[in-house]
Amino acid sequence: MIKKSPLQIARTSYQPKMPAALQKHVRLCIGEPTESVADREAIRQLFPNTYGMPVLELAVAKQGDEVICHSTPMNVGVILSGGQAPGGHNVISGLFDGLKRLNPDNQLYGFLGGPSGLIDHKYILLTDKIVDEYRNTGGFDIIGSGRTKLEETWQFDKGIEICKQLGITAFVIIGGDDSNTNACVLAEYYLQKQCGIQVIGCPKTIDGDLKNNMIETSFGFDTACKVYSELIGNIQRDANSAKKYWHFIRLMGRSASHIALECALQSQPNICLISEEVEAKNMTLNDVVEQIVTVIVDRANSGLNFGTILIPEGLIEFIPAMRVLIQELNDMLANNEEFASLDGDDAKREYVKSCLTPASCELYRSLPKGIARQLTLDRDPHGNVMVSQIETEKLLIEMVQKRLAQLKATGQYTGKFAALNHFFGYEGRCAIPSNFDADYCYSLGVTATLLIASGKTGYMSLVRGLTKPADEWVAGGVPITMMMNMERRNGKRKPVIQKALVDLKGAPFRYLESHRAEWADANTSYIYPGPIQYYGPTEVCDQPTRTLKLEHEA
Ligand code: FBP
């Protein structure tokens, strides 16, 4: 029986490209002390041991330099946390190879099913045989992932217990902003307890919102966007061939619109909504509908009753009145056993209405019942509304349809409107990592090893200069506290890594802004990116995202 595709087999032997420094003897360069991005005093007080640490760089050691080494064998743990992102297996293989290179007796343990593996003491010892099976593959199935939040001291203490038992002196948490915040909280706690356990984070999320002056992109964003852009391109070709459907395509990405923006840059749809712009312009849901309707009517006037619309999945949270409503719902739902115990949608709906302010109640009542119900579904363990389950694309189709019917009745619209809805998210999260993600992730893993060997804790593994060829990338570490600010979560103010939303003054958004009239226009400007290529010329196989390129050209 065939168990692997030819591509799977070929990818097993792909050797990820790495920064030159990681291929040789490495020395540690220590930068200037750092400050958090905001709320400095509050963060300093919460993280007395990990606040203000310097940025670190790993450089090629010259003769006479002190080289990073770790002669005594060490045991390290690794945890995959949160949503899957292409490249996670390569972080683990980089970590594994990095550890073995330092000392063949070093061991890597994988905690199973995400952070809960640490608490429940579920783990495996990763061997050559296991790791080799997963090199350059998508998914997180090597050890599994989960969304358990590590926030209580009994959980941290359970972590100490298993680390002592297995002789683990460091572990790496591969996760998004919330998981890396947890990593820092753990690092701080373990320093305070002086239990000799280091914690290092790695920037993962397809959402692309874990980025800042130091972290240029999170891993997985590149592959996921390439997969979605391929699908969007295919749909556009179909739309342009059949000329009869408007495709409303919602794209994952939680709050930030980076995925929608990147896919728009790659595929040039007729419309791409950007949540951050909707918020900045204080737009209502009706304004958003009007914006879409204007393009549909204009195209219909040119005889074109088809097109593509990209919708970021977090859109709904960025419409100011909706944001207030969602915040009220978040606060209402936080630890609300009464609500949880209610039977049936109607009872829940009545209960919700009785808890809301008059303005939010009115908005809640005006929403289609299905959408209103989706807004009150369980929050994730971090208190966030699970936007992937809110079908904004269907809401927009319904509203656009109604508006077009009104315009038709008054003779202002004469076209035909048939809409199809799509949601792309899970299709891209476990794709075989692009060369970019395979290389980036492997480098992040090797870097994490070197940070551990240098005795560091409370750092995130850092690889920069990503628009250059991989051997020119620069590796190092950034203190996690540097990226933090205080935010309201589950009704309380908490230290968290600041999410990067789309910068409306940034080059990627400005590119969209200056081209969207042309893309909306009668003459289709669609681009068909095609599938990710793993073998072939560099300009086809090794390109980073358009977002990264535009940001670096600026
Ligand atoms: P992370 O933030 O953990 O990387 O997850 C990202 C994401 O894919 C979001 O884009 C999406 O909203 C969410 O996960 C879906 O969550 P789930 O996997 O629990 O359905």
Task: Summarize the structure in words.
The chain is an alpha/beta fold and 554 residues long. The chain has 2 domains: 35-51 and 74-219 and 433-489, Rossmann fold; 221-429 and 505-553, Rossmann fold. The chain is built from 24 helices and 16 strands. The strands form 3 sheets. Strands 1, 2, 3, 4, 5, 6, 7, 8, 13 and 14 form a 10-stranded mixed sheet that branches. The termini are far apart. 1,6-di-O-phosphono-beta-D-fructofuranose (FBP) binds next to loops.
What's the topology here?
Elements: H1 6-12, H2 20-23, E1 26-30, H3 40-46, E2 56-60, E3 75-81, H4 88-102, E4 107-111, H5 116-120, E5 123-126, H6 128-134, E6 145-146, H7 153-166, E7 168-175, H8 177-192, E8 198-203, H9 221-242, E9 246-251, H10 258-267, E10 271-272, H11 275-280, H12 285-301, E11 307-312, H13 315-318, H14 320-333, H15 337-341, H16 345-355, H17 358-366, H18 369-375, H19 392-409, E12 419-424, H20 426-429, H21 435-453, E13 459-464, E14 474-479, E15 484-489, E16 492-497, H22 507-520, H23 538-541, H24 546-553
Parallel strand pairs: 3-4, 3-6, 3-7, 7-8, 8-13, 9-11, 9-12, 10-11
Antiparallel strand pairs: 1-2, 2-14, 4-5, 13-14, 15-16
Helix pairs in contact: 4-6, 4-21, 9-10, 10-22, 12-19, 14-17
Query: Count of DSSP E strands?
Result: 16
Helix content: 40-55%
Low-confidence spans: none
Q: Helix tally? A: 24
Overall, the morphology is: globular
Give the rounded overall mean pLDDT.
Answer: 94
Which strand-content bin applies to the residues?
Answer: 15-25%
Q: Which cofactor or ligand species appear?
A: 1,6-di-O-phosphono-beta-D-fructofuranose
* CATH class categorisation of the largest domain: Alpha Beta
Per the CATH scheme, the topology name of the largest domain is Rossmann fold
Overall structural domain count: 2
